Automatic annotation (TrEMBL):
UniProt KW keywords: Carboxypeptidase, Disulfide bond, Glycoprotein, Hydrolase, Lysosome, Membrane, Protease, Signal, Transmembrane, Transmembrane helix, Zymogen
Subunit (UniProt): Homodimer.
Cellular component annotations (GO), alphabetically ordered: lysosome
Primary location: other
This protein's record includes keyword Chloroplast: no
GO molecular function: dipeptidyl-peptidase activity; serine-type carboxypeptidase activity
EC numbers for this chain: 3.4.16.2
Parts of the chain that traverse the membrane: 12-31
Intracellular or extracellular location(s): Lysosome
One Pfam family here: Peptidase_S28
Reaction catalysed by this enzyme: Cleavage of a -Pro-|-Xaa bond to release a C-terminal amino acid
Enzyme class: hydrolase
Annotated protein name in UniProt: Lysosomal Pro-X carboxypeptidase
């Protein structure tokens, strides 16, 4: 890692990950790979970028204590639209018309950017580091914006935090203050609100000089290794329909995803690998796992939401964003996360007490 402020943040993030055995947090950072989001997977690609949603993975099967484990390519694992539905619900509950106005914003962007002067206006409105010049730039811009809303859903914490960006308490509520329009506003007014909203995420500290559509988080961490694992071990179909969610409709496209993996790593994902190896929903033979789910966390779409056995425990944290329970305790922690931690500790104690006392000896060759 290079020295510098950005990496310092990452080092801290990494330390937190390791301390809390929270390897799942790697994925949010990993997703910021501009290889994928900006260039559509290939540094020299001339194709439109593959949408973020087609590239979402989690590593549940690799890190079995993480909340989400049921993503897999077979449609009966997790419906592909569930993730983005939860993102949308987070915005819907955080302010009047908030989700509706974001849903409208995509068409407004298309309309406004259909002229050169509109492209320039939008670039200035968002204080972009580099002005949008082409339809490709607009597609990248929309991906970046979508990823911004997704990230906010993951880090909608009840207190100030700086996991992906420095943010105020309940950042989506702050964002939604700029998105409360009724149906009559012009595209320009709407997009002005959207730019103010985006700047809550990108400029909370007031220190940002411009918005860079090549990045959505404060840095990156072990990206390629993570994507390789995702390409070889777990496929997580994602899709949007623009009705149950606030995004532009986009179907899941396994072939496009597979081609991307092939182009970058020379590997193709096996659609059902995770289900075959780990058993999909049939995991009753495992033991001593707590599946905790934050109700605000879009990843809870793939979570285990019921107790399977008395050592395969599901915990719901309705007010929790991404792994809120694994963060340090805070005065503003909602009661649901305090209760979740208490249950977790209870099981840890129980399992440790019942573990065999003598260390296992390695088999002699
Ligand atoms: C598109 O933008 C123009 C102004 O550039 C505006 O007059 C028109 O109403 C917009 N169309 C839609 C569908 O919003
Ligand atoms: C960020 O906020 C500061 C302080 O309000 C402001 O001076 C600056 O122009 C903002 N940057 C962007 C990119 O909007
Ligand atoms: C924008 O982000 C990319 C990727 O992190 C970086 O390479 C580039 O230098 C940044 N541009 C500006 C103007 O900060
Ligand atoms: C699973 O059992 C624990 C108690 O052992 C309980 O706290 C928790 O709410 C249960 N989970 C669900 C999803 O019902």
């Amino acid at each position: 890692m290079k020295p510098g402020g950005r990496n310092e943040v990452l080092d801290r993030a990494a330390a937190v990950c390791i301390l809390t055995l929270c390897f799942g947090c790697l994925h949010v950072i990993a997703l910021k790979s501009q290889l994928f989001t900006r260039l559509g997977g290939l540094p020299s690609s001339t194709e439109f970028p593959i949408n973020y949603k087609t590239l979402y993975f989690d590593q549940k099967f690799l890190e079995p204590w993480q909340p989400q484990h049921q993503y897999g390519s077979s449609p009966d694992m997790v419906p592909c639209g569930d993730f983005y539905k939860i993102v949308t619900q987070d915005f819907a509950r955080s302010g009047h018309n908030c989700d509706a106005n974001i849903r409208k914003s995509w068409k407004a962007i298309n309309n406004v950017t259909s002229t050169a002067s509109g492209l320039q206006w939008l670039s200035e409105e968002f204080s972009l580091c580099a002005p949008l010049k082409s339809a490709m730039d607009v597609a990248i811009f929309k991906n970046w914006l979508q990823e911004t809303w997704v990230n906010l859903a993951m880090v909608d914490y009840p207190y100030e935090a700086n996991f992906l960006q420095p943010l105020p308490p309940w950042p989506i509520q702050v964002v939604c203050k700029y998105l409360g329009f009724d149906s009559t506003v012009s595209d320009y007014q709407l997009l002005h609100g959207v730019s103010q909203a985006a700047k809550v995420y990108y400029n909370y500290t007031g220190s940002s000089s411009c918005l860079n559509i090549s990045q959505t988080a404060t840095g990156s961490l072990g990206l390629l290794g993570w994507f390789y694992q995702a390409c070889t071990e777990m496929v997580m179909p994602m899709c949007t329909d623009g009705v149950q969610d606030m995004f532009e409709p986009e179907e899941w496209n396994f072939q496009a995803f597979s081609d991307e993996c092939n182009a970058i790593f020379g590997v193709r994902p096996r659609a059902d690998w995770a289900g075959i190896v780990y058993g999909g929903k049939d995991i009753i033979a495992h033991s001593n796992i707590i599946f905790s789910n934050g109700g605000l966390d879009p990843w809870s779409a793939g979570g285990v939401t019921y107790n399977i056995t008395d050592s395969l425990i599901s915990i719901m944290i309705p007010d929790g964003a991404h792994h809120l329970d694994l963060r340090y305790s805070n005065d503003n922690d909602p009661p649901s996360v305090r209760a979740a931690r208490a249950v977790e500790v209870k099981y840890f104690r129980e399992w440790i007490n019942h573990a065999p006392k003598t260390p296992r000896t390695a088999p002699t060759p």
